[in-house]
Specification:
This protein is an alpha/beta fold. It is built from ten helices and nine strands. It has two domains: 3-30 and 78-118 and 163-237, Rossmann fold (3-Layer(aba) Sandwich), CATH 3.40.50.1220; 37-75 and 126-157, SIR2/SIRT2 'Small Domain'. Helix 8 packs parallel to helix 9. 2'-O-acetyl adenosine-5-diphosphoribose (OAD) binds at residues 22-24, 27-28, 33-36, 46, 50, 100, 102, 118, 157-159, 186-188, 190-191, 211-214, 216, 229-230.
Length: 239
């Protein structure tokens, strides 16, 4: 039996499904991935700018980077990979989509049972009050943006060295432990704790399906590795 058929069969028999996505699922919409060639801005890597230290040192530089990313993402639309995950949410009794992406394209596609592990680029958070607000302005009127209380706003994003929101992470862990099938699509499986979720699902007995254009550190633990684009392969899983 071909790998895609084994994956389809596992999915057809499943009741509880969890999917973990990363930047690769948005690549076909035109969003640059982090570890690919398009991920560099002015020769900075994400790890150099997406940190509390970088923001403390130079909030304007970090906001210029996020301004550029917001401008890049604003005109982009979800692709068939995002929509296949919406169809899965409707098909399975229990479904959870866990994403590392902050681009908001899963929400734009219509996913509701969604855990955004790393936050969302379209929300800001006050560095003093902690208030979270949606902000779709492109470009931002003032850089770096400020709260009505006068304090700096930051992107509502989990940076390197910061803890994930405990409630969001717990809901992802619970879904992985309960799943019959876990789909891991478009992530390099390089950043923890997200990269550890597939191991939890595996320990609990889930069938693991990876979709990626290349092998990752997690490929060895997968039941099936499907090599190709998520925008093509995710819809095929449902055929
Ligand atoms: P990466 O850029 O590390 O990995 C993207 C993955 O997608 C790679 O494994 C590619 O091979 C794969 N890929 C690219 N195009 C694809 C396609 N069309 N179909 C399927 N796969 C494709 O992105 P993430 O794994 O999401 O953190 O990175 C994890 C985290 O590191 C991000 O959430 C971000 C980053 O720094 C924060 O912003 C906190």
């Amino acid at each position: 039996m071909q790998d895609i058929d084994r994956a389809r069969e596992a999915l057809a028999a499943a009741h509880k499904v969890v999917a973990l996505t990363g930047a690769g699922i948005s690549a076909e919409s035109g969003v640059p991935t982090f570890r690919g060639d398009g991920g560099l801005w002015k020769n900075f890597r994400a790890e150099e700018l997406a940190t509390p230290e970088a923001f403390h040192r130079d909030p304007l530089l970090v906001w210029e980077w996020y301004g550029w990313r917001r401008q890049t993402i604003a005109p982009l639309a979800p692709n068939p990979g995002h929509y296949a995950l919406v169809a899965m949410e409707r098909r399975f009794g229990e479904f959870m989509l866990v994403t590392q992406n902050v681009d908001g394209l899963h929400r734009a596609a219509g996913s509701v049972k969604l855990a955004e592990l790393h936050g969302n680029i379209w929300f800001t958070r006050c560095t003093v009050e902690g208030t979270v607000r949606e902000n779709r302005a492109v470009p931002l009127a003032l850089l770096p943006p400020r709260c009505s209380c006068g304090a700096l706003l930051r992107p509502h994003i989990v940076w390197f060295g910061e803890e994930l929101d405990a409630g969001v992470l717990q809901s992802a862990v619970d879904a992985c432990r309960a799943a019959d099938v876990m789909i891991v699509a478009g992530t390099s499986s390089a950043v923890y704790p997200a990269a550890g979720l597939a191991g939890l699902a595996k320990e609990a007995g889930a069938f693991l399906i990876e979709i990626n254009i290349e092998a990752t550190p997690a490929s060895g633990m997968m039941d099936v590795h499907l090599s190709g684009r998520s925008g093509e392969l995710l819809p095929r899983l449902l055929e």
